Amino acid sequence: MNLTPKQLRILDFVRTYRENEGYSPTMQEIANEFGVSKVTVFEHVEALVGKGALVRDPNKARSLSPVDEPADDELVLPLKGRIAAGRPIEKCEDDSELDLGQIFGPRKGRHGEMFALQVEGESMRDEGIFDGDYVIVEKRQTARNGERVVALLPDGETTLKTFFRESDGTIRLQPANPDFEPIIVRDCRIQGVVTGVMRRY
Fold it and tell me: Is residue 125 part of a domain?
């Protein structure tokens, strides 16, 4: 792919911006970054699209994405309002969108790779994570107390539990089901932190 130095800088900026913010920059934000006009940015972006380095939806804001990333539309669903699971509510229709990439993607200011795991077992049942669910995980090596983690235990097994570092230096991996005992270890390797749960019926 034959890109000019300016096109390479714009492509790198779009990629970095998406990693940091979780969504794409606007043409104006790119223009501000490089101290040029929106027209100039538009010309460079069109060239990048033509060369197959970027994809974009001309009818949608913040739709720029490098071709080696999934297109935003693959993770965007129409959001039609709210549905009552308790008392009925007044009918309300909405024409906005639900961007799963922003919900389950890396959090602002973080660069962690995302991956999914299918849950086996019922140890996290009381937190709404059931056997067969998929957890969306941000790849990280550290966790804060109360975060749900994927932990590699000293015996080589992995487990999904809530992380707590105790005052005596041990780590408590807490299940969310009274039928299971907490796992107490001196050390474990955090492989990621759960950012969301998905379920297919």
Answer: yes
